[in-house]
Design goal:
single chain; five-stranded antiparallel β-sheet; cell membrane; globular; ABC_transporter-like_CS; alpha/beta
């Protein structure tokens, strides 16, 4: 049985011109021990769909689904209290932009141990020991001293590692990583990706990687869901997607990769889609 199964997920927001569907009829699943990449350009609904699963969207959002099943429990049917027991413990999420996601008013140690207090009920000494263990696990140097640091006293890469430590603190069964390498330099990106995949393998977690970077997809994923304007365009294992993309939008994304450039500049996704439409029309 799949770890997480989503059927017909729709997320709409009220706007001045009427309801806007950020996610439109999304189906997906992820298995234990699997890395699923959700890929698409900015605004395609990748993050919104997973925030809906976590129950973290504002009240202004209208969320509907035929099924949001996590390990045999339908998250639509359980109480808010039951959901809070699951979210942050069994399902965890690493958010975009760690410098903005961490609270600047509290130390790294406080923010990390709060998760352990709420979900595991550990005592003060146990929480501190576990926090040091987690910071060590994610490669933070001098972890005991770093517990008293504030986010602004750490680099972007270190803050991202702290966010990962918070994500794995309660040994979740499913970890959602939302653009985990955004705004990091190339060297740090590689370290963070290696860290995430290593933790996923050692803990046996399911991992959902939200990204617009096809290089990240190629390096980390087993299976890929391609989204465009809130809809799923294609789903395939990673090798099939790169070698035999079926959907025009997927082909457009791949054509926009630097290694696939054939002229002086990369074509936009829109240009590739227009070219494919023209070719299809000529064939008719």
């Amino acid at each position: 049985m799949a770890l997480l199964t989503i059927r017909n997920l729709t997320v709409a927001f009220d706007t001045a011109s009427g309801p806007f569907k950020a996610v439109d009829g999304l189906d997906l699943h992820v298995d234990r021990g699997e890395v699923l990449a959700i890929v698409g350009e900015s605004g395609s609904g990748k993050s919104v769909g997973m925030l809906a699963v976590m129950g973290l969207l504002p009240a202004t959002a209208t969320v509907t689904a035929d099924l949001i099943d996590f390990e045999g429990r339908d998250l639509r049917a359980i109480s808010a209290k039951e959901r809070r027991r699951i979210v942050g413990k069994d399902i965890a999420m690493i958010f975009q932009e760690p410098m903005a996601s961490l609270n600047p008013c509290f130390t790294v140690g406080y923010q990390l141990t709060e998760t352990l207090r709420v979900h595991l009920g550990l005592g003060r000494r146990e929480r501190r020991d576990r926090a040091v263990e987690l910071l060590t696990q994610v490669g933070i140097p001098d972890p005991a001293a770093r517990l008293s640091s504030y986010p602004h006293q750490m680099s972007g890469g270190q803050c991202q590692r702290v966010m990962i430590a918070m994500g794995i603190a309660c040994n979740p069964q499913l970890l959602i990583a939302d653009e985990p390498t955004t705004a990091l330099d190339v060297t740090i990106q590689k370290q963070i990706l290696d860290l995430l995949v290593g933790l996923q393998q050692s803990h046996g977690m399911g991992l959902i990687m939200i990204t617009h970077d096809m290089g990240v997809v190629a390096e980390t994923a087993h299976r890929v869901v391609v989204q465009y304007k809130g809809r799923k365009m294609e789903e395939a294992n990673v090798l099939d997607l790169f070698e035999h993309p079926k959907n025009p939008y997927t082909r457009a994304l791949l054509s926009a990769l630097p290694e696939n450039a054939t002229g002086d500049r990369l074509p936009t996704v829109g240009e590739v889609l227009a070219r494919e439409a023209a070719s299809a029309g000529a064939a008719l």
